[in-house]
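Sequence in, structure out.
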Amino acid sequence: MSEFAVNLFTSRWLLTPSSQITSDGVMSDDEAEVSKNCHIYLICERPALSFEKSTFSYEGGKLTGNLIHRIEGVEYKTPFEQEFALLDDAIELRLSSYPHREVQTFNHKGECVRHLPANVVSFKHYHQEPDHPFRKLKVLYVGQAFGGGNRTAMDRLRSHATLQKILAEASYDAPDCEIMVLMIEYEHYRVISNMDGRAKEAIRDERDKKRFISIIDNPLKKGQQISLAEAALIRYFQPKYNKIYKKKFPSRELKVLAQCYEYDFSALVVEINTDELGLSLYSDTVRPEMHHISNIDLVDHEQRAGFFHMALGDGVNVSYAPAIGSLQNKEG
């Protein structure tokens, strides 16, 4: 009578250009805390941004000019205006050298004390247009860096062979793009139950209650939860650089699903939410959205209906895909 799903949903996030992964930059305490606890990282692609030198100006503490990005070689210009004070003893401001990716400030010793990348300025534009190039991140790879382990996401990425491969191929095949890394922290999972009282062949005795008690008494460990999130997101986005889980997920042969099958979970629901960022995630197979839900059915429908099906009362089952995210944590 009852079907149970594992629901995983996101909380905090950290977005950084790939160029910062190996830099000697220092994070704030809050950023370092998120980086330490992030579980999943997405290597993404977006148009590279730069400032147009001929229109750039700085007057009265305000930057103005055009942002430039290119798509398949076609150049686009977007006017911008940005407040930017001279802080940290800075006495001079100028554009970085070509391709003018950032604004830099310098103190009286000629030391660079602050910088403002063009891609950061671009995030202020087109908040209500999830399909605009400024608002989109194309998912190229999904990986995990278990926050409770010995390495953070940042540590793993510094020596990540796939990231280096993506950077090398992007510089050759996609010179108009830049690589960004989105690190995500997942909350502890929820168990969602679905009770179908009209299913004529449903189990209605003590076996149904025992299934529920078994699920509650045998919680998934954090590492298991993150492995499930990784696999479901790979299956959902079908990223170019991932190999496993793209086709053969779910499967009873996969170790990552062993406990789900052991305790008779019938579905996996993995969410990823970037609406607080104001950015959309997409891939070659998934359209841009700020909230994605990967619904994974774990049961054999020749044996039973499962979590995503319900009886109409006349022997006919219909499928549905619930929108789970109403309780999503928006902190961070």
